[in-house]
Amino acid sequence: xxxxxxxxxxxxxxxxxxxxxxxxxxxxxxxxxxxxxxxxxxxxxxxxxxxxxxxxxxxxxxxxxxxxxxxxxxxxxxxxxxxxxxxxxxxxxxxxxxxxxxxxxxxxxxxxxxxxxxxxxxxxxxxxxxxxxxxxxxxxxxxxxxxxxxxxxxxxxxxxxxxxxxxxxxxxxxxxxxxxxxxxxxxxxxxxxxxxxxxxxxxxxxxxxxxxxxxxxxxxxxxxxxxxxxxxxxxxxxxxxxxxxxxxxxxxxxxxxxxxxxxxxxxxxxxxxxxxxxxxxxxxxxxxxxxxxxxxxxxxxxxxxxxxxxxxxxxxxxxxxxxxxxxxxxxxxxxxxxxxxxxxxxxxxxxxxxxxxxxxxxxxxxx
Length: 367
Ligand code: ADP
Fold this sequence. Notes:
Blueprint: H1 8-45, H2 51-106, H3 121-170, H4 178-205, E1 214-217, H5 218-236, E2 239-244, E3 250-253, H6 255-271, E4 278-285, E5 289-296, H7 320-323, H8 331-341, E6 345-350, E7 357-364
Parallel strand pairs: 2-4
Antiparallel strand pairs: 1-3, 4-5, 5-7, 6-7
The structure holds adenosine-5'-diphosphate.
């Protein structure tokens, strides 16, 4: 059990009172011992010989001196206590506010309003840092809640499909043919991909992808990604072209991860470009960066959605998920995190629906 401790304000006041009390006591005692003796010696050296006069003078001095010392001590005691009380109040109020806010945060209420402690720079910094911490906790909590909701949503469709197929096969209301098995396999593959992408996106968010950064020529990585994608493009009859610049493009990168990013962009381009369309990969450099662009002549992205395509589980057309359940909705989120871990950026451009899209990865050149 936690022992109930005295309040901070009481402790500070007691400490101040002790300091002031000791100071006043020392002053009174030393004044009582030293001042009369000194006055006596002064009278003697001034040649005051009459005992009556001397006693009278000494009594007058003692009473005047005593009264002024007592009045002075009492006044300074009161002044010290009053200023201490004001000081203590101004220190303990923000501390109490913070303690109250911390209790609120501990209880899961992150939306706390910590009054700005303007009394001192340290307290002000403390309350600002606390507010910042509470805001970050609120963000993390909302991301977590959103993630769970998104995940539940993503799992629902393949699980419902599998359940329906299993029921139908069990009740013999559906032929046990290749088409049924193929649909079930597709849903299982979708779940597997979702699990893998979730693991990757969690690792990417924590910068724990274990990148092996080494000098590579960006053009080689781009060319390898294009070569790997060629058969899939040929199967859908979408033309894939590669244009690499003549100058070397040295970058510090994990070649496999960078290729994974480009493979994802090429997959997306293929999925969103109809047969007969064209996808062009361009690798070039400017003074400070290597730039690789994947541009397609496909369905495009409305301007309002250009920045959201990198958000987890964001889909421009959510109805497509059930039609071609191949994407997990995490591809661009992972790609963005990988590129960011290389110190680069990835951006999307499109002139609108039906007008094609282009994604550009920009990495700092190795100098
Ligand atoms: P998904 O697995 O759904 O492809 P991504 O994160 O890779 O997830 O992409 C997010 C969304 O961005 C896609 O669902 C799609 O709506 C949109 N998108 C990505 N690339 C393209 C593209 N080349 N053309 C049109 N839309 C695209």
